[in-house]
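Practice problem 4.
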């Protein structure tokens, strides 16, 4: 993983937990960790592409949208 991305991934995990609480859904840390693992791999390989500042992730069938352009290496440079 690139330097500095661990903090972004921790923030991503924290944000998903907050959204789960707001949406009153069961928060499953392992399911979120699996999503984070996918994001970590994409960060490491540079394959992540985001065309807008709205990001989406699906955890246990619940779609989360979050506004964090700094999470993506490409949109943080724009």
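Answer key:
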């Amino acid at each position: 993983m690139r330097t500095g991305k661990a903090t972004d991934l921790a923030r991503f995990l924290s944000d998903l937990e907050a959204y789960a609480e707001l949406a009153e859904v069961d928060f499953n840390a392992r399911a979120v960790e699996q999503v984070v693992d996918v994001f970590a791999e994409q960060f490491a390989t540079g394959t992540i592409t985001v065309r807008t500042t709205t990001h989406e992730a699906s955890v246990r069938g619940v779609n989360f949208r979050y506004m964090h352009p700094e999470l993506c290496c490409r949109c943080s440079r724009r």
